[in-house]
What we know:
The protein is α/β, with parallel strands linked by helices. The chain has a single domain (about 5-480), classed as Glycosidases (TIM Barrel), CATH 3.20.20. It has 16 helices and 16 strands. It has helices spanning about 5, 25, 50-55, 80-90, 105, 115-130, 150, 160-175, 195-200, 210-235, 260-280, 290-295, 305-315, 365-380, 405-420, 470-480, and strands at about 15-20, 95-100, 135-140, 185, 240-245, 250-255, 320-325, 325-330, 340, 345-350, 355, 360, 380-385, 425-430, 455, 465-470. An 8-stranded parallel β-barrel has the order 1-2-3-4-5-7-13-14, surrounded by 5 helices. A two-stranded parallel sheet has the order 6-8. α14 (about 365-380) packs parallel to α15 (about 405-420). The longest helix has 25 residues, at about 210-235. The two termini are about 35 Å apart. The mean pLDDT is about 95. The chain binds 6-O-phosphono-beta-D-glucopyranose. 6-O-phosphono-beta-D-glucopyranose binds near residues 247 and 442.
Amino acid sequence: MVDFKAISSEAFPTNFLWGGATAANQLEGAWRKDGKGPSIADALPGGKQRLTFASSKDFNGQIDEKRYQYPNHRGIEHYQRFKEDIKLFAEMGFKCYRFSIAWSRIFPQGDEIEPNEAGLKFYDQLIDECLKYQIEPVITISHYELPLNLVKNYGGWKNRQLITFYERFAKVVLQRYKQKVRYWMTFNEINSAFHFPIMSQGLMPSNGSNDYTNIFQAWHNQFVASALAVKFGHQVNSNLQIGCMILYATIYAVDANPKNQWANLKQIQDFNFFCTDVQVRGEYPASTARIFHDYQVDSQRLKITEQDLQLLKKYPVDYIGFSYYMSSVTDVTHQDTVKSAGNLIGGVSNQFLQTSDWGWQIDPTGLRIALNELYGRYQKPLFIVENGLGAFDKLTTDHKIHDDYRIDYLKKHIHAMAKAVADGVNLMGYTPWGCIDLVSASTGQMSKRYGFIYVDLDDNGKGSLQRIPKDSFYWYQKVIESNGKGV
Ligand code: BG6
């Protein structure tokens, strides 16, 4: 008889990957250095309205430094200071570090045949620096940083040629780092295009973001590109673990009204599961026809070949990476609902939850639900590759940051993870977002801080860039040291 009681424990596995996560475009800076070309992130100005601006008709990927300020151009100068930063990660005891490789450092325009050796040299050093401290690199191949040329002159991911360009890029990095890097993800938050196709697909109004046929075509092209990366990665080293990565939003129906329940289930099918169904199960879900109908996708115009479908089936991902920050609520029956803000998706305000400084609804139990929903559906290892609290931090006169609110947020989410592990979920690791303060993706602000390490830089680009460990730095150190017990 199997003793089910004995195998149900809240302990994290001994090889659990504790670490932190960043993305090249949000911290490296050096946007023109050593041959790097501009990416879509380099064209996004700072300010709370950046995504509204990037989704407007006025935006066509132009960079106008006289008119706008571009915080990603400088980032936190990680390009120059990466050794100091990795040393601090090592001090916290990181087992892994998730970062992305800026595509336009390796292929500055995206469509070259030969890679830019100077760009690769930077990642050689970054990876070696991690390995020096036994920190396992976890690489996102594409994180909201498509080369701008592919946006402006090729029309973004709706253009099938991008499959070839991505494949070339992925092959170069997989080949080069196949013995040093085991964990990879093909696209950051691939499903986010439902709401903001500019960052992940390079689609804006001037190249067709207002037509869902383009968005679904872009996804299809990305699915094929992802499958090709999995194929190649496993060919060069069968030990490589190549995952997908989605933005997971736990969504609740506001009440038991079947209309709200159905609307909510649709949201879950569309937003949370559509991309993973394809990337994990290797085929389009049964709900595809309904989804195409709801989003007025012209399936006659979609180019999806038999050969593509075979590739998707043959090369699914090895694990599911996802970000989790908050939950939201679906309500289609009340007129006077109060809206909530959120990580690219909004929703209706939830009276049972508190919100962050940016109005995101804090919900640790929602993470336990997310883990159970994802594992129940796919039975593939899960990796929480983003989670955290964007908050205003205050530097005291004696150079300290007392971020007990961040510790409280993370603590509750780690407790929820432990419970999910006891629920039977296979969880590989946890990399809180923005482990060092960096430029916010949605607002371009520095003042929206997630880090364990404070970076002295404000929203106007002023500051010494000095790195200062926050209280959460020492707390997280203990969490890792005790493998999650000292939370
Ligand atoms: C995720 C992205 O959506 O959330 C990150 O993958 C982003 O790039 C993070 O930074 C937090 O969002 P924001 O807008 O607060 O930076």
